[in-house]
Amino acid sequence: MSYTVGKVAEFAGVTVRTLHHYDEIGLLSPSDRSRTGYRRYDDADLLRLQQIMYYRELGFSLDEIATILDDPHADAQAHLRRQHELLSERITKLQKMVYAIEFAMEAEKVGIQLTPQERFEVFGDFDPDKHAEEAKERWGDTEAYRESMRRAGRYTKEDWQRIKDEMTQWGERVVALMDSGAPADGPDAMQLAEEHRQHISQWYYECTYEIHTGLADMYLADERFEAFYESIKTGLARYLHDAIHANAIMRA
Amino acid sequence: MSYTVGKVAEFAGVTVRTLHHYDEIGLLSPSDRSRTGYRRYDDADLLRLQQIMYYRELGFSLDEIATILDDPHADAQAHLRRQHELLSERITKLQKMVYAIEFAMEAEKVGIQLTPQERFEVFGDFDPDKHAEEAKERWGDTEAYRESMRRAGRYTKEDWQRIKDEMTQWGERVVALMDSGAPADGPDAMQLAEEHRQHISQWYYECTYEIHTGLADMYLADERFEAFYESIKTGLARYLHDAIHANAIMRA
DNA sequence: CTCCAACCTCACGTTACGGGAGAGTCAAGC
DNA sequence: GCTTGACTCTCCCGTAACGTGAGGTTGGAG
């Protein structure tokens, strides 16, 4: 079975020009041509293209990919194994970025100032990246964008005042509850934790139980957050942490 | 507090040239200059740079980033929320790719032929990507690379024969165990599951319990794998699945 | 036999910088 | 106060990985 450029381009999700380019630079030359000069790709070519796309996704230049793929010591399995490893690392890195974002969101909410170094910590050791179509189409005037903008992003000053007030009140209630000696995993504390989660979901972003416990961990693990909550009341950071966890476990 | 290009470049992990470029195209112009013409970046500039880098990581062009960041309707929180969402989607996509790789590795091992469409399914809707330094440095002659190459990638024909034999033997023992009526979550089945995992770890790639259960799920969920194992013996796919899961639960 | 879609080969344009030239600037040490 | 090495400035040309036609050929459905 052999395929034309158009077909290959179609199910590989690249343009015909890209395939022409790969042919030009010798990265992927179709193993055959029709007598009229049409490119004909066979299954082996497709396998190579697949490898190319994975490595490209992982940020290698076409030159590097050529060297990698033409290494006689590495077979298909070795490539897959390698790609698996690199992908996993990349996911870990992106997860760190997600954490950093959650941190920044929370920091901004309570007004903690980040130093420039802190802002860029997560960018420690990588370079640009592309996402293209999907992201492009999403931004602009898609439904998802309007939805997210509808939910937040343009509150009035009064809204912000209300949000702050709500939060302040909530804080007072937590402190009062702590003073009353109620346990952090009791029903009242859990109720307050749930309110906190819903407050975030309503005004900021959808806060799942997972994200919420992530925040709770942050309150304890990060000295800036800990200092912030401890300055309100001694033991508050841990109390919040425990209440949020108890709540998440019960409801999830 | 204000910073020079060099400082900013340093803790943002970009080159000075990049910052010059962003200034040229008006994406990020330092809010001040010294009387001798030196660029001076303040905290607001850094915040903007941080946003730029996140969006860049997410694959937006500099043009698009400019439009996005200059949207008066979106504040810092809105950007963070949006970035969080996009990052999560991206992670999901990469996880799908990891799954696809695991699938391809397993398929190649047992000799299942993939159609071109199947090969590219995961590339459905995105474009190039870069990873740069980290990946570049890793490839070539780093310790990690040599390590992985040492472990696999250049077996002799005899090695391959041994691997195949080992696998065949193992398969026969599983079938025999099934015939004997032993339960899939019994100690013998679990032992065979563990051997399977170690076989993969030894010859192919490090197969964690998590990956192993992923494979088990694949045996049931994917009709090609199911057909493959069912053709050996009816009920084998599920038997393997259950044994691997039982083993993973016990040992983990 | 006729189309139109798909293919071909140039060939110039674009994005996001890299890298160097040539010249001015800053701060630490003598 | 002077040197000197690291840092900065503004051109400006180079590169990678394609995008985007221009102008011409082919192939298969009707």
Write a concise synopsis of the structure shown.
Two copies of one chain form a homodimer. Among the domains of chain A are: 70 residues, Multidrug-efflux Transporter Regulator, Chain: A, Domain 2; 95 residues, Orthogonal Bundle (Globin-like), CATH 1.10.490.50. Helix content of chain A is 69%, strand content 2%.
How are the SSEs placed, and which strands pair?
Two copies of one chain form a homodimer.
Chain A: H1 5-12, H2 16-24, E1 32-33, E2 39-40, H3 43-57, H4 62-70, H5 76-110, H6 116-120, H7 133-138, H8 143-151, H9 157-179, H10 187-203, H11 209-221, H12 223-232, H13 236-251
Helix pairs in contact in A: 1-2, 3-4, 5-11, 9-10, 10-13, 11-12, 11-13
The structure holds a DNA duplex (30 and 30 nucleotides).
